[in-house]
């Protein structure tokens, strides 16, 4: 027989499952053109269920994008933790970021940049990614695996490239798919700072 402590666990699981489904939907189709009724129909739930998650469509979108970045960050860090050398950690990080963002459609990215709350979330996460790349490079410099480079500059350089990749600018100018662009960035960055 369920106890009273089972209810919050189920509720938390249900919320997480709904946000996972919302992420999948928004990544595939964007969100600007979708109403709460459209979202409810696509997820086969009631509008009331969605309004339990947020008071408005705008809040629902912002919470969903937050969930996406939080989940992606955990997946990226798992891959980094499994990597061995400093070079492998930087490569794993950049490739994992590319993989996490690969389901994002052009419509989603366009909507994300057009809506101030999600654009700000994106910018915060890009800044966090730059700091993380900086940390990984600084660790490699300290261990002697990388040349004595300015880690903050290398992180900023990576962040600028990542931002261009995520806005699909690299694809437009080079024809590279995002995943391949991240592979190229990882190779160029780690080759440039590796000890001879």
Automatic annotation (TrEMBL):
It comes from the Bacteria. This is Putative TetR family transcriptional regulator. It comes from Gordonia soli NBRC 108243. SUPFAM superfamilies: Homeodomain-like, Tetracyclin repressor-like, C-terminal domain. Residues 35-54 bind DNA. Pfam families: TetR_N. The lineage of its organism: Bacteria, Bacillati, Actinomycetota, Actinomycetes, Mycobacteriales. Residues 12-72 form the HTH tetR-type domain. InterPro entries: Homeodomain-like_sf, HTH-type_TetR-like_transc_reg, HTH_TetR, Tet_transcr_reg_TetR-rel_C_sf. Gene3D superfamilies: Homeodomain-like (1.10.10.60), Tetracycline Repressor, domain 2 (1.10.357.10). GO terms for molecular function: DNA-binding transcription factor activity; transcription cis-regulatory region binding. Keywords: DNA-binding, Transcription, Transcription regulation.
